[in-house]
Structures are given as C-alpha cells and as structure tokens.
Amino acid sequence: MKGLASMSSAEASRPRIVVIGGGFGGIELVRGLRGAAVDITVIDSRNHHLFQPLLYQIATASLTPSDIAWPIRFLFRDRPEVSVLMATATGIDTQRRLVMLKDLDPVPYDMLVIATGARHSYFGHDDWERFAPALKTLEDATTIRRRILTAFERAEAEHDPVRQQALLTFAIVGGGPTGVEIAGAIAELARDTLKRDFRHIDTLETRIVLVEAGPRLLPAFVEAQSEFAKAALERLGVEVALGVAVTLCDADGIVMGEERIHAATVIWAAGVQASPAAEWLGAAHDRAGRIEVLPDLSVPGHPEIFAIGDTVAIAAPNGKPVPGIAPAAKQAGRHAAKAIRARLAGEPVSPFRYRHDGSLATIGKRRAVIDFGWIRLSGALAWWIWGIAHVFFLIGVRHRIAVALSWLWVYLRNQRGSRLITQTEPGEAGEPPPG
Amino acid sequence: MKGLASMSSAEASRPRIVVIGGGFGGIELVRGLRGAAVDITVIDSRNHHLFQPLLYQIATASLTPSDIAWPIRFLFRDRPEVSVLMATATGIDTQRRLVMLKDLDPVPYDMLVIATGARHSYFGHDDWERFAPALKTLEDATTIRRRILTAFERAEAEHDPVRQQALLTFAIVGGGPTGVEIAGAIAELARDTLKRDFRHIDTLETRIVLVEAGPRLLPAFVEAQSEFAKAALERLGVEVALGVAVTLCDADGIVMGEERIHAATVIWAAGVQASPAAEWLGAAHDRAGRIEVLPDLSVPGHPEIFAIGDTVAIAAPNGKPVPGIAPAAKQAGRHAAKAIRARLAGEPVSPFRYRHDGSLATIGKRRAVIDFGWIRLSGALAWWIWGIAHVFFLIGVRHRIAVALSWLWVYLRNQRGSRLITQTEPGEAGEPPPG
Predict the structure, then answer these.
(1) Interface probe with B: pick from A40, A73, A116, A406, most Cβ of B within 10 Å
(2) How is residue B9 annotated by DSSP?
(3) Fewest CB within a 10 Å sphere: which of A355, A386, B13, B213?
C-alpha cells in the first residue's frame, strides 16, 4: 500500500487536476475530463454527493438520506485516474500550488478547480441559526425533520393551550423555491399524513407562516406564477406574509415587522453566502463572497485555477447573474473541463455562456410552476413534469426506483416513509436522551 | 384541543392500560388488545418501533433507517383508543399507580405493562463504550456505519503503513448472531462493495477479527452449525478467536488474552443488561437486571403489573431461560394481552408457555444457519429462508419492497445503498466538521 505522496511523485508526468467540492459542478467537471491524460483528485469534507434540490423532502419525511446521496468515490469507481479524498480544505497556497487540508498533508496541483458551493446566510445574525436551522446538508435535513416531528409529539403531550398552539406553529423565512416547497410539504404533512395519528391535538389546526421580505414569492418566475404559488399555498392553509422582514429569531419564534409569531419551529430559507474560497485566493468577490471570475471561469491572475458553481459570480449572456441552481453548476463544470483540456493543449479557452433551461418549483404534491422560457406551466401537469424530471436527474436505477416508490406512497396513501426522530441534539428541550 | 389529563378523567370509566416500550413485546400487546373496552397509552422515548434483527444491516450500509422503523403512532392510527406518548419513563409509583416521566406529568394506570427491553452491557467497563459502540438503536447503527466507512476513508489518506493497517483492522467482540452478522457484512463490504473504490489502499487487505470468550460461535445453535458459521466466516477472510476474553478496549483497539489488536474500529456485540424497570419496582431480578416475574408474567405482589420481553427473566417449559429474541417478546406480548383480558373479566390467568420456533443467523449474503428443532439447515438455502422470513416480518408493503430492492442490489451488484457518513460526533478525530 502506498500513500498519496508517493502516488503523486510517481505519476508526476501527468498533469495533476485537483477539484475541491463534490457537488453538481465538481462531479460534472470530473465527468467532462473522462479520457483526458490527467490525474484527478476530488476533495470533499463529505463522503457523498448530494442531490440538493430534493433535500427538503428529507426534512419533511418523504425521502430518506440514502435516496438522494451517493458516495463520491462510488461515482468514479471505474475511473482509475480519479482519487477521492475525504478531507476539509482550509486554504490554497497559490505560490506553491498546494491545497491545504485539515489534519492532512497538503495536496499539490497543476490545475485547480474550486467548486466549494455556498452555505446559508443569516445576514449578520449568526446567532439565529440555532433557532432557525437552514437546509444545505443531510444533517440540516434530519435536524429540521426532527424538529418538525418533535413539535407535533410535544404538542400531543402539552396541557397548556397557548404553548400547544406555539408547538403547532411553523414559521418559514424566505419565499424562494426552498421556502415554498417546505411550507407546502409541512402543510400536507399536517393535513394528510398525520391527521389520524394523534389523539389530543387536531393537526388540521397547524399554523404555517411563510415570510418573504420581497414583494412576491418565487422572484425567479413571472408574476402570474408567483400569484399561482401563493394561492396554491393558501389553499393548503399556509399564511403567506409578503413585503415584511424578519427582525428577530429566538426560542419563542420570530418577529416579522411589528408582529411576534410564537412558533416552536422556525426554518430558514433566506440568504446565501458563498464558501470562503475567495478569501483563500485573495480574489475579488461580491457581497455574498462569490469570486468574480473571468469570462472563461478562471480566477483573475491565475489561469491555472477555475472556479464554478455557487461560489462564483458571473453574468449570463442576457446580463443577469447566473443563478445558483444545479443546472448552472453542471454547465460550468462541463465548461471548466473543456477549458482544462484546451489549456493543456495550448489552445485558447472560450468564454462560459450560461444557457437557462428553465425554473421549476413545486407546491405540495399536486401543484408546481415551470418556466422553460418558451412555455410556462402552472398546476398539476407542471407537477408531473417536475417529478419526472427530478427522478430522471437522479443517478442510477436503484435511486430512481426508490424515490419513485416513496413518492407513490405519498401520492396514493399520504404516507411518508421517513417519519423518524433521530440524532437528538444535546440540550434540546423536551426530546428523549440519545441512550 | 384538550390535554392528556382531561382525556383521562373524562373517560375514566374504561380501564387505563399503560404500556412502557414500543418494541416487539409492547406492539404485540397493543395488537392483542384490539376490541377490548380499554384505553391504552403507549409510552416510548423514541417515536419509532424498530425491527432490531436487521439493525446490523444499517451499520453495514445495506439498509437505511427508514427501511426498518415505523412511527409507533402510525401503527395504531386506526385505533382511537390507543394514545402514543413520546416520553422517557423515569420510574413507577406503584402506590398511586403512576408512571413517572421526564419533563412531563405522571401518567396514571389501572394496569401496567413493562416492555422496556435491554441495553448492551460492558460488564462493568462502561468506559469501553466510547471505543467500542454497541448496536441497539438507530443512532448506534449510524454511529457504527460512520466509524466503519470513515476508517476506510482515513486509511486511503494515511501515509504511515502501521497506522494504515490499524485503520483497516476491525475487531468485533462477541460471537452471537449480531457479532457473526456484523463480521460477515464488513468482510463483504471490504471484499466486494468497496474493492474498486479506493486508489491507495487495497480493501482486500482488510483485517476482521471476531472475538468470542466462549468455546464456540452461536451458542444457541448445535455445534455443527457453530462450526459451519466459523468456516463460512473464515472463507470470507474473518479471523475467529474463540475461548479468549477481551480485557481492554481503548483508542488503539483491544487486548484479547495477552494479544494487542491494533484496530481503529471496535464493535461491541457481547453482554446484555436489562432496563432499570426492576429497580423502579423494587422487584427481584437476576444479575442482568431482569425482573423475575411470576409464571403468568405478572410482577410478584402486583397482579396489575405485567412485564414482558428482554427486561424479564422467565423459564421456558423445557427449563431453559426464554431467550431475548423478537419472537419471544411477541409471544409474551400476546400472552399479556390475554392475561389483561382475563384479569378484567375476573377470570383466572394462565401461565405463559414459551414455544421456541427456531433460531436463525446469517453469515454474509449467501450463507445462514437455521435450527427449527425439527429441521436444521446450513448454507445457501438457509440464507434464502432467512431473507424471506425477515422480509415477511417487516410491517407494510412499502417496507417489504424497499428492503427487497436494497437486498437485490447487494445480491446482484454488491452495491450497498446507504454508504453515508453522517452526524459527526464532536471531537471524533479525523472526521469532517458538521458545518
């Protein structure tokens, strides 16, 4: 058995491509380099690639983590030139061309791709996170699932009606696709899935408040579709508050504008903050921390470094910013693969041209909005297209069957397969001890 | 909405049956009381019933938690007389007939069933638990899964060959069914599932040591089957050490007899300790803490209290102790339901007679041993019977399809669907941060 260092020196004749991040951008980049005479190392602090667009379905008990996650090294098991390293990147030494790692030796590169993504942002109120978890990782999703399900359990045992109502109140901050999807899913969880399971509470009395600071939901869609989403949510019993900012999150819930909402469960689906990669590089970045890359996706002053996905700020051909969605990251990954091939061949690198294929968002299990540009759909047909598209984009037959099976049960029987309260946080009140 | 207290007083005319524990015994008891004119409250610190016989398959990445767990209240959604309370019992006030709960008001009972099960025992070495986790809850299973998968990840990044070999060494303490099943599953994980996924280690060099203090594996089976299991494990590359006690578990592995095994991953599959229910009652108990119940399963001096399952010591008609297995707990649950009906009708209560239907244990994905008394099977046919029996005993069509699908993939493609490293323990060395 040999270590990483001996490998790298023994095969130093092939250019070493290092990719930080195994999300949509990083995975697509490695796919795009198939057959190239390079050695590739993928570094990720997780062992798995995650299909983030369906993460909210784990948080709301429809899907289970293994439905939408794949070991990164499993995806490249047939590519002997690809190594995967589970490690946390802590910096980049651009002089010596090294990626610095936590607890491990630095990894040398000839060309580097930064695909480190984004985290949620609390707009300077990081202390809100413990009251209002956001949704980015599998652990985030199981944390939110635990809080939602535990709230119903505690309400069932609660004698005080005021406290009971607070336990049955859910506040979701942010009216983009994630907020809309979570609000719709919690509404259906309460109305359909749980309605026969409790004896001392009526889950139909669940209150769900979706707060959006902007003037409408789903700002990436046209106004009529924002209206459709709002009406569809309201039909599910969700209260939609528009044009009002959340000024406080605490143990009692939120304050929106002047109004206090007593909610035991608050979910954060607002702001996004890029990874610290711009700081590692000392590169110019926007307010959200996104690296301002050149048109070919390389980092200014570093033709050997490309950056892609949510950690990058770049304009689309129409002048608007490229959105932080999976298809954009995948396109950038494909472009960076081509750019690396061109650079290695000494050929000129073409600029990245983002092509917007469409926007999709779902509201509960029967309604969605889709804007493909050439056609817009709102309603049941859009929901079917949304569902089929998402099953299609999962990797592998087994995952597609598993997700389709879970959805079938939700659709036909209202039964959600993953109503598990697990992994209690220490000190979280009213939850059982882990032992 | 009304609280628990008002419910209980409003319907005090019906006898209040309280069940502590939603395992096999508790669930079967509630099923056995269908149609009886009683009010039932099931108390469990978890929200889910767990199919423990397959828990090792979560620990070894074949199944996912939602495959083998069901919300307890979902199981009784069609039984309006059954309430489920997620709460941790802390004691029993037999004078006032109250179950004491953590953070919640006591729950009154007319008749009580204790089905609180067992935990693993470290034979007085509780400090070994952090080095050698055992397998009883979903969290235990995901903890062990994380440690197994992380060991391979860390070995891939390790330069020092001695340290690398320790990372690729797995010690399993205890040669009962759980130890045998885990050892076989880790062997197949290393040999088949992972073999193409790493570049700097050869997973075929994985060392798996199964240590049993007694003279043979699977003491519940006949000697020939113990021999079969040992040979089958050895064919998978497992080292089986018999008649040697583990005298130390620490961060470096274990000491068995005089020999130090350097193992980064140690799994505890030895001793069992009953729940503290005997202490709550001040009842006579054996060394493992199991309540010594009367032949009808009632607690001596308390005809209104029954105790069932792994927290009970009782002899079978053949004089041997009733084993701590799922079928025994289910039979006891059914008996306790009949006993409660008889007690309420003023009729005499018959003694519990355990009927041993058989013992099953599996070694990897093609071998099992079965002893039904009238027939004994060892090998591939036994494995198929084991698999079909376990799918049959799962609750609900969806779970059966999901488990069968997962097993199909393991069987045909050697691919395990749940190779996820999640829920990092704070301070666990070499793992990624949760954020």
Answers:
(1) A73
(2) H
(3) B13
Residues 27-56 of B with CB under 8 A from A: 45-48
**Cross-chain residue pair B103–A417, CB shorter than 8 Å:** no
Q: Which residue of B3, B150, B205 is in closest CB contact with A158?
A: B3
For A262, the domain range is: 126-270
Q: What is the mean pLDDT of residues B329-342?
A: 98
Does position A2 have pLDDT exceeding 70, yes or no?
no
Residues of A in contact with B67 (CB under 8 A): 64
Tell me phi and psi for residue B37, to 5 degrees.
Answer: -85, 70
Tell me the chain B residues in contact with residue A417 when contact means C-beta distances shorter than 8 Å: 66, 398-399, 402
> Residue B419 and residue A74: Cβ atoms within 8 Å?
yes
Which of the residues of B are catalytic?
A: 181
Domain-embedded: residue B312 = yes
Confidence band, pLDDT 50/70/90 cuts, at residue B412: confident
Summarised one tens digit per residue, pLDDT across range B291-328 is 999 999 999 999 999 999 999 999 999 999 999 999 99
Strands B265-268 and B169-173: parallel
d(CA A291, CA A307): 8
Residues A184 and A214 reside in one and the same domain: yes
Interchain pair B45, A2: CB under 8 A: no
Instruction: Provide the 3-class DSSP secondary structure of residue A290.
Output: coil
Q: Is the pLDDT of residue A412 over 90?
A: no
* Phi/psi at B139 (5° precision): -65, -40
> Residue A217 belongs to a domain with what CATH number?
3.50.50.100
Residues A200, B1: C-beta atoms closer than 8 Å? yes
> Does some domain include residue B163?
yes
**Given B344, B361, B395, which residue is the final one in a domain?**
B344
- Residues whose CB is less than 8 angstroms from the CB of residue A292 and which lie 6 or more positions away in sequence, other chains included: A283, A284, A285, A286, A300, A313, A314
Q: Do A48 and B401 touch (CB under 8 A)?
A: no
